Amino acid sequence: MTLFRIKTINAIAPEGLELLGDEYSVDPEDNNPHGIVVRSSQVDVDDYPELLALARAGAGVNNITVDKATEKGICIFNTPGANANAVVDLVFPMIGIWLRNIYQGISFCKSLADVPPDEVSGEVESRKAAFRGVEIAGKTLGVVGLGQIGVRLANGGIQRFMKVYGFDPFPSLDNIHKLFSEVTVTRAMRDTLSQADIVSLHLPVNEKTRGMVDADFIAKMKPGAILVNYARGPIVNEEAVLAALDSGHLEAFISDFPTPAVIAHPKTLTTPHLGASTTESEGNCSRMAVGELSAYLHYGNITHSVNFPNIESIPESTVQTRLIVINKDVPGMIAFVTKVLGNHGVNIVSFKNESNGTVGYNIIDIESTLDQSIVTELEANEDVIRTRRIILT
Ligand SMILES: NC(=O)C1=CN([C@@H]2O[C@H](COP(=O)(O)OP(=O)(O)OC[C@H]3O[C@@H](n4cnc5c(N)ncnc54)[C@H](O)[C@@H]3O)[C@@H](O)[C@H]2O)C=CC1
Ligand SMILES: O=C(O)CCC(=O)C(=O)O
């Protein structure tokens, strides 16, 4: 029997979707789903009246109306780290492609297709000097954003015999602990920028970082440095970058977010938002997204939400009803919920609460059914955002 309707948007790897059992329908055409799995397409949660949760199979959630979702009690997940290796696995080759003039070298080889066969090796040897490059080893890498991707990139730089500097204004302890000790973490961004031959961006786009890479940012970079953007297009002020490429202050701009002006510039290399596009990464993201979504839909448990607190509670076998109360994070809500339930003689087996400063989330296990009238009473409180009654079988 179908309990939950899932809508997929974009190509979601089957490895994850296959984990959903018979209780789920999965349909890209479903316009009234309980859950959504999406990659980079724009999603406005207002378009889905019964939506409970959305999982972004990836890291960035700038394509989703997260603030609206919070107001409506819709849980938004992402899949931290699931595609990080794929990004790192592309950024280093892209830097190498620029430094070693690979692109020009490949075009040159293609141009030899019409040359008589006995002349090809002569042409190769006599003209290859034009494509001489420089090595990654020995260069200094600056990583802006030491999250899942940034830490792997910084460590990868050390493994490639680079000097590595990194900056992050809000580093998580988990990520910092994974950094190799050879990486220098600077307290100010300018100290990373001023040291680096190659600056790579690995931070989210938000109201604080939109346009962050402007003329001032670029002026703090070493003359002749290379800028790499595999984070998000709008973090970079394109005009400032193009001006710096023209003046020579930047040697090159390597980006996953092509625009007409960037593509047209001779000192750029672009890929079509390919950072996460590997079989392995798509499988990882899909499996993680589906796991998060099903734990939420079945049990109300939360891991890796970007707008709700993390919380997990395993129900006792005697529990019949799991009541979820999602509320604004204001004082007195636990007392309010327990009072309403107590007034109606409801025996609480387990009460678990977490908050993230904006949303309070309560998992309340009950050994009986729960009347709709009690839920209605809870929902009448203006600080209650949403409730769910999950019947455990
Ligand atoms: N090109 C692609 O296909 C992909 C792009 N991305 C982009 O890369 C971004 C980073 O991904 P993850 O490392 O997985 O995320 P993450 O959340 O693990 O790390 C982001 C880091 O950026 C830091 N940060 C925030 N504001 C900052 C600022 N002003 N300056 C420096 N650091 C700042 C955060 O503190 C955090 O440590 C994502 O938000 C996404 O936009 C992610 C995956 C694939
Ligand atoms: O799913 C994709 O291809 C894009 C991945 C991405 O940009 C992200 O995870 O933030």
UniProtKB/TrEMBL annotation:
Keyword annotations from UniProtKB, A to Z: NAD, Oxidoreductase
Keyword Ion transport: no
E.C. no: 1.1.1.399, 1.1.1.95
Pfam families found in the cross-reference section: 2-Hacid_dh, 2-Hacid_dh_C
ACT domain ranges (all copies): 322-392
InterPro entries linked to this entry: ACT-like_dom_sf, ACT_dom, D-isomer_2_OHA_DH_cat_dom, D-isomer_DH_CS, D-isomer_DH_CS1, D-isomer_DH_NAD-bd, NAD(P)-bd_dom_sf
Superkingdom of this protein's organism: Bacteria
Pathway: Amino-acid biosynthesis; L-serine biosynthesis; L-serine from 3-phospho-D-glycerate: step 1/3
Reactions the enzyme catalyzes: (2R)-3-phosphoglycerate + NAD(+) = 3-phosphooxypyruvate + NADH + H(+); (R)-2-hydroxyglutarate + NAD(+) = 2-oxoglutarate + NADH + H(+)
CDD domains in UniProt: PGDH_like_3 (cd12174)
Record-linked PANTHER family: FORMATE DEHYDROGENASE 1, HYDROXYPYRUVATE REDUCTASE
Job of this protein: Catalyzes the reversible oxidation of 3-phospho-D-glycerate to 3-phosphonooxypyruvate, the first step of the phosphorylated L-serine biosynthesis pathway. Also catalyzes the reversible oxidation of 2-hydroxyglutarate to 2-oxoglutarate.
Family: Belongs to the D-isomer specific 2-hydroxyacid dehydrogenase family.
Annotated protein name in UniProt: D-3-phosphoglycerate dehydrogenase
Lineage: Bacteria, Pseudomonadati, Thermodesulfobacteriota, Desulfobulbia, Desulfobulbales
